[in-house]
């Protein structure tokens, strides 16, 4: 069965470290589902799915790849997960990620790095291993290796689209609020979006239809009902085929935002971008230049807002309410003085402070600590007006400019990342990794739907002679996932 094939692929590729937790009972679950339901439970009946380890799964450890949550077993499932299960999907495991979603390479995980399957060919010559991308790198590798047919990821600033591009997959980040965040462990709440990674655009449409739609458990989840995309996407393709085209885009306008043509863009990305524009033109679309002047502000704006929200969201991990407890326990530091001895209030406060400090210093990795500290800083009285307030204003300006561009054209076409998959080594300067997000953060800040589509293979600029996937990004209008998916099919 497809389940058995996925489970054996999972075992064969375990060296790539894509799973934090493997659910070995998935096969029995599938047999039970098959036995009990002679009729299909739903559109994903019996389909093996991988879930990023920041989505809560009832009774199954959910770590966000952090030591802080290494033993956390949630009593409930995220809405996206329950909807997948209700439609018949079977979760085969929880996938590795950058701790709390903070990173672009699945490098900052308490459970070790995830390796891009495309770099396996390079290993023979003792070449560097390449990054699978991040933070949903484990989800990408699970789908790329055939260990699951689709995966749930989360995208705050590119974490679904960038690993999809690095592994040769489709990665869809829906409109903010299209899919419920209930049960998704928070990183930056105003940006966090559940998304899907699949092999094809049609698969992404199918999974989106299952998980999308309003949810009373998430007040930021949009009220608008989700009009199913899958049937329409397939129909559009069928009627174009009858007209002799892969997909007909007659009457559609595609914008090429000039500001994405940055200096860091490598040659293969430029070539793919031009080729993509040609494909869309051949399918009947009008391709024209557009401008989003604030693009150069997107990256700093994103990091100020993401770190600020993270510092607030992660304050709940104090070692007291739940999660990891630092070794310097409250009781130990108190008993030094002897319980019942005349502890002053100040001693108590110091003990509590030391305990929380120990829990956080030991429970959070370096990258998370860096971001929490930066976030606290930009929210402090001294820095609020200089950083946080400016970032909020820049976000509004960027959103307005993107919506204006999208009032002239239907979709924007851009590269996903400036370079292909890079070597999996910790950079000397942590900010170096952040540059990789320059193409993906604008849609996140504007809350717009965006999709990464694999379009080509090109020689890696990091490992000579090694072919690696190249992806392109389409950004759509607010809530226009259906149109985005139809255009994406023309690039496949
Ligand atoms: N790489 C970006 C960051 O580190 C985006 C991560 C994400 O989308 N979760 O914040």
Number of domains: 2
Please bin the fraction of helical residues. Answer: 25-40%
Oligomeric state, counting identical vs distinct chains: single chain
Number of strands: 11
Topology as a string of helices (H) and strands (E): HEHEHEHHEHEEHHEHEHHHHHEHHEEH
Mean pLDDT: 92
β-strand percent reads 5-15%
**Which CATH top level class of the largest domain fits?**
Alpha Beta
Indicate the low-confidence ranges by residue numbers. none
State the distance separating the first and last CA atoms. Answer: 27 Å
Shape: globular
Q: Briefly note the CATH topology name of the largest domain.
A: Amidase signature (AS) enzymes
Query: Structural class, judged by helices and strands?
Result: alpha/beta
Name of the CATH homologous superfamily of the largest domain = Amidase signature (AS) domain
| C-alpha-based Rg, rounded | 23 Å
Bound compounds, each kind once, are: glutamine
Please state how the strands of the largest beta sheet are arranged side by side. Answer: 1-3-2-4-6-5-10-11-9-7-8
Q: Tell me which CATH architecture of the largest domain applies here.
A: Alpha-Beta Complex
The main β sheet shows up as:
11 strands, mixed
Count of runs of 4 or more consecutive helical residues: 17
